[in-house]
Design goal:
This protein has 63 residues and is mainly α. Helices cover 73% and strands 0% of the residues. Helix 2 crosses helix 4. It is elongated, with a radius of gyration of 12 Å.
């Protein structure tokens, strides 16, 4: 029986920008607007990463 990957393992496997945005959003509970300001990127880009990242995390974690 194979063990499921941990959240830390899955996050570590993501591209840096995606990992940073998802960590700030889900673990630091920052809004898209706050993240966009911090990273000097458009808010819609942050929203897109969060949306796609949520789906990717679910798939990688087997949820």
């Amino acid at each position: 029986m194979s063990e499921s990957p941990t959240l830390a393992q899955v996050l570590a496997s993501l591209p840096e920008e995606e990992r940073i945005i998802l960590t700030l959003h889900y673990l630091r509970q920052m809004s898209s607007s706050e993240i966009a300001t911090m990273l000097t990127v458009p808010e819609r880009a942050v929203d897109a990463v969060i949306s796609a990242g949520k789906a990717r995390l679910s798939a990688l974690l087997g949820l």
